[in-house]
Amino acid sequence: MPTTLTLNHLRRYAITRSLFKPRTLGRAVTKLGFVQFDPIRAPARAQDLTLRHRVTDYRAGDLEARYSRLAVEEDFFVNYGVLPRATQCLMHPRAARTEWPLTRWEQAQAVLEFVQSRGVVHPREVDAAFEHGTTRNWFGGNSRASTQLLDGMHYRGLLRVARREGGTRLYAPQLAHERDSAADPDATLDALIDVAVAKYAPLPAATLSRLVTWVGSSAAPQWRERRRDALARAKVRLPQAMGDGCRWYWPVGENPGSRRFASDDVLDERLRLLAPFDPVVWDRERFERFWGWAYRFEAYTPAPQRVRGYYALPMLWRGQVIGWANAAVRDGQLQLQPGYVSGRAPRDAAFESALQEERARLEWFLGL
Known about the structure:
By secondary structure, the protein is α+β, with helices and mostly antiparallel strands. It is about 40% helix and about 20% strand.
């Protein structure tokens, strides 16, 4: 490790380890450890926008189309997404923070027996069979009560997502709630934390604390009382150093200052438009430290208050995030509206060709 760990070391390390050489879909999900989902399609869902940079010949919708043939599961980790089945097993049997009353468990048992009799069910089949009615959702609107029940059963390990149709989850029995509890909860919790660290490293100390909290409260709430000790262990066992007035952490066996991460490959001419939840830009605190400006996800911000746009995609070029672009498909044509931190596009002659090449890659990915 260099005597002084600079932001340049950390920035190169973050980009190089995350934007690895493209590989098969299954291997990319395993390498990432977890891929966050988002239902907004602008111009594609976040999971597809993330995977297109890391999977050979990836097209929008490939994850949904191939899901049932992969050793992966949809589940809630630090947020909702897909992760290797072996990692998902570590989180179950999961004891949800909200206790269900006996009447709710009776409803769940009846639905479970229905799903077992069918093998795989669409939520509308459950709704038609049980007529649970509607309930208030967390957005303040109304949702089918059956949908919320299925979500709760999935979270508690009674069901798994078998596949999707048009973005809608179809469920099958799983019975993860009947597994034996982990023999060593602390070791299992540490393993889950290591998955999160490997996904988002290098981590400022504050981000590490948040991730440990989320893993212990959402991925494995049965161990939420162990979060403080888990964080203390992580701060001891993970490699770390001071840089830019902050303590940084990263996975065991890696070194941000090594020659492996000192290459100028991350400063190449390829321009990449990244998803708002791409691991390179996901941590907003780290983003501001690395690139000196604030990026915010504004899809849920009232239009008059947006600064970058509805679904602005951070623009990475030559190892720097120099701006963003909003992308949309209208009349079968891709429209890109770029914006730049400096207020204008780089004058370098290579930039325009790099932007056009990324446009062409995005069109191919979208099947235009």
